[in-house]
Specification:
With about 475 residues, the protein is an alpha/beta fold. It starts with a helix and ends in a 5-residue tail after the last strand. The protein has eleven helices and 22 strands.
Length: about 475
């Protein structure tokens, strides 16, 4: 048989196959898709060695989801990078092997933009990226430039393609990624949501600050030129490095940077058009008077992200649960609290941490913790809510939210520091308390939560 005949025969056969009755189809996102969503993970100890039933059942839940997410509030390295002069509080670092422990637990995606992103500079950030990627985990929120830090990152699954955009409003300024110029390279760092803080005072209080500032020479610079007061805005001034304004009530007003909102919205819009699901996540310590209440800008920003195309909005940062809102049929978690909180078993700390507590060079991490928490009589160790949280499990059908479960977890309040900080399913009484607390926090957003067989269920709005 001539080669031309062979080619002709093959072509005809291929054509017949294409025109025959084929059952092959590309997947669609109209089937059920579940997510397991958690809050902050500060991990300094292995997970895979433990075998409590409540722990393994929790791990099974995470692994059974089509996607599992946490905020990685850690850096992974072997102390190659030096600690920066300013950190997110404690300089957070874990053994690089712990990235694989997250993968063992079923975690698929992590956010990286938070107040500890730059604790060990650009090298610490890059090494963490290396180890997270080697563990097979998708991560977002950091990069070698602002554009890269803003980028969505994608997880490919058999059921859906999922985009993750990670943002932080809480950070030391040196951690913020920056743009390049033709004559200047970009700055590596995190994806920021900046804001301007204004201290609003009643007129008499404002005048008192003004007089104090004037007495201290704050309205002239070192050359004797006027500064601090803009004649076009007489009810405002900038003194002591702070912005002040006159108002009816004394409040701290946070105004987000509109350029950041616009740029992030564009990233979300793009991601939503190339993925089946888009998750926007933010690390936000800022509060509305209590750690459980978000700052006023956060609900506005979260809703803007939903309108830009996000399917899920996940907050974290305050080390406590915040309320849940269903906006345009999409879930907004203002904070999912802590998932792992093992900040007391760090291997080493820089001198800055010890100096802040007047500890000498012979002090070690345990001494630092004893001094910081005054032998567990103050701070995180005595606040139960810090050690109570939930794993949120939304289920989508045909890309629409159809169920939202909340599994209460305990991180071991009252246990020794070498034990507490690792999550497992809460017992019946504690679980009921956690869901009750979250129900109360969610009521201002019109969200109703019921407890059924140890699990919280968000009552979803029904179509008229």
């Amino acid at each position: 048989m001539k080669w031309s005949n062979v080619v002709l025969f093959a072509a005809l056969s291929f054509g017949l196959a294409l025109t025959g009755q084929s059952t092959a189809q590309h997947r669609t996102a109209d089937e059920s898709f579940t997510m397991a969503l958690t809050g902050d993970s500060i991990i300094t100890r292995k997970l895979s060695v433990y075998d409590e039933p409540e722990f393994l059942q929790m791990i099974d839940l995470i692994r059974s989801a089509d996607l599992a997410f946490t905020n990685l509030e850690m850096l992974f390295h072997n102390y190659e990078p030096y600690p920066m002069a300013e950190s997110g509080g404690t300089w957070m670092r874990g053994d690089p092997e712990l990235a694989k422990e997250l993968a063992w637990a079923g975690i698929d995606m992590v956010s990286r933009a938070n107040n500890h992103t730059g604790d060990y500079g650009a090298l610490g950030m890059r090494l963490t990226s290396k180890y997270v990627e080697e563990a097979g985990i998708v991560h977002a929120g950091v990069g070698n430039s602002l554009a890269e830090a803003r980028e969505a990152k994608f997880l490919e699954t058999a059921k859906a393609r999922v985009a993750l955009i990670s943002i932080s409003s809480s950070f030391a300024n040196h951690m913020r990624a920056g743009r390049s110029r033709d004559d200047m390279p970009p700055r590596p760092g995190l994806n920021p949501l900046r804001y301007k803080t204004t201290y609003v005072l009643q007129e008499a209080e404002f005048e008192g600050v003004r007089q104090s500032a004037e007495s201290l020479g704050q309205f002239t610079n070192q050359d004797g030129e006027p500064t601090g007061v803009d004649e076009e805005t007489p009810g405002e001034m900038k003194v002591f490095g702070r912005n002040f304004a006159v108002g009816d009530d004394a409040i701290i007003r946070l105004d987000v940077n509109e350029d950041d909102v616009r740029e992030i919205s564009a990233v979300v819009s793009n991601a939503s058009r190339v993925a089946d699901f888009t998750i926007v996540t933010i690390h936000a310590h800022e509060h509305g008077g209590r750690r459980e209440i978000p700052a006023d800008f956060l609900p506005v920003f979260a809703r803007a992200m939903i309108e830009a195309g996000a399917d899920v909005f996940v907050g974290h940062g305050p080390h406590a649960l915040r309320g849940i809102e269903i906006f345009q049929g999409k879930p907004i978690f203002y904070s999912l609290g802590d998932f792992m909180f093992q900040n007391e078993t760090l291997l080493r700390l820089p001198a800055d941490n010890y100096d802040a507590l007047d500890l000498d060079d012979e002090a070690h991490v345990a001494d630092f913790n004893d001094a910081r928490y005054k032998d567990d009589t103050t701070g995180f160790p005595v606040i139960p809510d810090i050690w109570e949280s939930v794993i949120a499990v939304p289920t989508f059908n045909d890309r629409q939210l159809t169920e939202l479960k909340l599994y209460p977890i305990s991180l071991g309040f009252g246990a020794p520091r070498q034990v507490r900080g690792r999550p497992l399913f809460a017992d019946e009484d504690l679980g009921a308390k956690i869901i009750s607390d979250l129900k109360e926090l969610s009521e201002p957003y019109g969200t109703e939560i019921e407890m059924r067989r140890g699990i919280g269920y968000v009552l979803l709005p029904t179509d008229d």
